[in-house]
Each structure stands twice: as structure tokens, then as C-alpha cells.
Design brief:
The protein is mostly beta strands. It is built from seven helices and 28 strands.
């Protein structure tokens, strides 16, 4: 099995971490830029990163976003014999779904589609599933089958089979999404994959952790059952959740050059592997970007590529600790559109600490104690 491996401590074979490598592939934005279609796409499908966290969709419908900058995907399999799919491991949602052979949307035509008729372990549920996106929705139905993640076989896992998908999905490399948030967020009452892993005793600890490589196409990984010290150094800061629906924590403040530029007095943030940027209220993001020397242009905040080395650090103060991002971490360069910051406008109050943040800080999601752990990524 090329796409999964197990790391075991020498003291005991039982102390094993099950890991799924994540591929850092070309993003939808990069593909569209190469085709000269990005501006048309951006205007037609505006970025709405907060859609998946809209309280109106917290239960019953699960919101997603048309995030054109997502680039990390892992492989799972469903059914007997197994059918493989690339999925986004998304700590900001709770459902598992993949395209099905019953999907007629353009987004399904260039992705793998699950065929339930060829799986001997598939059982139909029959209930409909609808997942709301920022610019459309996925509709389908629910079924049960064996889902294998990193070599762990979760039997009778409920999952969604899409029948229609929003148009922007055709530009993404991932076939579907595997949600890793709390079950109370799950659409149609579907039990999340990690909850079944815990219930069935497939993991040593009720913990999963994520390492996102900054520079390499390979090396990123999601670990089930614990933490991998090979991917971080220094102490782990454990932060209690302020809400156990998402992986939501309290940020004390955000500073640039020692000056508070956002979150004065504290704010709420979600650690989300399914969002590429750091997202916050428009006024706050504008203030931060101004302090960093970035200017707004066509929906992005751009900087002079020659000035990145002289740009200041951006620091998030969380639970009494400083989590600092250098300019090399928060500036992204495109061969077509120059340099822009990885800071995007979002909702009124809630922040998202997405991949731009997680690449710098190994992120540990502790269901046993309802905490997030952060440590400096190697």
C-alpha cells in the first residue's frame, strides 16, 4: 500500500501511529492562472471562506467553500474491492463524501467516481445529503461501506455519494472531502470517520495531528492516534477549545512590530486544515495587511516580491504564547500574479487559521481532552 504507513516506537509495537501522506499538488488557482481563466473564475465564483462556518448551516447542512488555493490531498479507499479517492482532510467539517457514478455534473467528469454496484460491502442508506458551498452545493445520498484510511479499515462507515457538485470542483484535484470536526456539525447526522475510529478502538489515542510541508511536494502527513515528534520541535502549547463544534480557540491578540493590529481584547479562531489562508474580518485583515506593507488589488493583498526579505513578522498571541509567522510564511508568489499575502477577508467576528498558519505550526487535535496543541513545525 503505497499511500499509507505506520510508525511504531521501538519500546512496543503497540505504540503505533497510523499516517497518511499528503500530496501537495497544483491548486485550482494555479491551474486557472495557467489557462488564463483566473480573473473570470474569481469574478464568477467569489471566495467565501466563512460559508462552512455560517451558523445557519451548523447542523443539517454543512457549509464548504470554493477555496482555489487548497493544495494538500491524501488517498483513502472505499468498498470491497477498494476504490481509491483523493480527499481533503478537513478539520473544519465533519462529513465524508466522494463523487459517485450517479453524478452528472462537470465536476464529476474529471474525478474518480464511486461505484456502489461493484462493492460487496456496500449498503444503501437512502437518506438525501445536501452540503452547502459558498457558491453552490453538493447534493447526493448516504450509504455505508468499509472506508480504509492509512491502513485502518472502518467498517460500516456512513458517507455521501454525490449526484451534483458545484462547478468550481472541476478545477480541484481532490475528489472529495473527509471531515475531521465534531459529530454535532455533521450533515444528516452522519457519524464522522474519526469518531468511528475511536469507537472501534482503531487508534491508541483519541488524537490526530497534521504536518504540512512548506517547500516540498512531499513530506506532508496526517497522523491518526497520536503525534509524531519527527515533525515538530520544542514544547507543545495545549489550548482548550472555546467551542467543541469546530476546533475553535481564543486568540488574545495579533501584532506586527509589537503593535496590536487586530483581535484587541481577544477573538475566536478555528484551526482549519480545509482552508488555505488566514481569514478574518475585513477591517482587521485590511489593518494587518497595511501594517505589513501590502495593498489591495483585485481581491488580493499584493506586495513587492523584492521586499519580502524586509517585511515584518506577523504574530498571533494564543494562550499566553506567541506564534510568529515570518514574511516567507505568509507571502505567496505566483509566476503570473506576483506576490500576495496569505491573508483573506472573511466574516464579521470569526477567524480561520488555515494552511498558511499550519505550515508553521504542527497542529494536534485532541478529542479526549477537547484541546488543540501547537508546536513549531520542522
Amino acid at each position: 500500500m503505497k499511500w499509507a504507513f505506520v510508525v511504531c516506537a521501538m519500546v512496543a509495537l503497540s505504540e503505533c501511529l497510523v499516517q497518511v501522506p499528503l500530496e501537495k499538488g497544483k491548486t485550482a488557482r494555479e491551474y486557472l492562472e495557467e489557462q488564463g481563466l483566473w480573473e473570470e473564475f474569481r469574478l464568477k465564483y467569489p471566495f467565501n471562506p466563512m460559508a462552512k462556518f455560517d451558523h445557519r448551516f451548523a447542523v443539517g447542512n454543512e457549509g464548504m467553500t470554493n477555496d482555489a488555493d487548497l493544495s494538500y490531498y491524501g488517498v483513502i479507499s472505499i468498498g470491497t474491492p477498494p476504490q481509491s479517492f483523493r480527499v481533503i482532510f478537513d478539520s473544519g467539517s465533519s462529513n465524508l463524501w466522494v463523487p459517485s457514478i450517479y453524478c452528472s455534473s462537470a465536476a464529476c467528469s474529471n474525478h474518480k467516481r464511486f461505484n456502489p454496484t461493484t462493492s460487496s460491502t456496500y449498503r444503501n442508506n437512502g437518506n438525501p445529503l445536501r452540503i452547502q458551498y459558498g457558491t453552490g452545493s453538493m447534493t447526493g445520498f448516504l450509504g455505508y461501506d468499509t472506508v480504509t484510511v492509512g491502513g485502518l479499515a472502518v467498517t460500516n462507515q456512513i458517507f455521501g455519494l454525490s449526484q451534483t457538485e458545484a462547478p468550481f470542483m472541476q478545477y480541484m484535484r481532490a475528489d472529495g472531502i473527509l471531515g475531521l470536526a465534531y459529530p454535532s456539525l455533521s450533515a444528516s447526522g452522519a457519524t464522522p470517520v474519526f469518531d468511528n475510529m475511536m469507537t472501534e478502538g482503531l487508534v491508541n489515542e483519541d488524537i490526530f495531528s497534521v504536518y504540512l510541508s512548506s517547500n516540498s511536494q512531499q513530506g506532508s502527513v496526517v497522523t491518526f492516534g497520536g503525534v509524531d515528534p519527527n515533525h515538530y520541535y520544542g514544547p507543545i502549547t495545549w489550548i482548550p477549545l472555546s467551542r467543541d463544534l469546530y476546533w475553535q480557540i481564543t486568540v488574545d491578540s495579533v501584532t506586527v512590530n509589537g503593535q496590536v493590529v487586530a483581535c484587541n481584547g481577544g477573538c475566536q479562531a478555528i484551526v482549519d486544515t480545509g482552508t488555505s489562508l488566514i481569514v478574518g474580518p475585513q477591517s482587521s485583515i485590511s489593518n494587518i495587511n497595511s501594517a505589513l506593507g501590502a495593498t489591495s488589488q483585485n481581491g488580493d493583498y499584493v506586495v513587492n516580491c523584492n521586499s519580502v526579505g524586509q517585511m515584518p513578522d506577523l504574530t498571533f498571541h494564543i494562550h499566553g504564547q506567541a506564534f510568529t509567522l515570518p514574511a516567507s510564511a505568509y507571502v505567496r508568489q505566483s509566476q503570473y500574479y506576483g506576490c500576495r499575502t496569505g491573508l483573506g477577508n472573511g466574516g464579521d467576528n470569526l477567524w480561520i487559521l488555515g494552511d498558511v498558519f499550519i505550515r508553521q505550526y504542527y497542529s494536534i487535535f485532541n478529542r479526549a481532552q477537547n484541546m488543540v496543541g501547537l508546536a513549531k513545525a520542522r
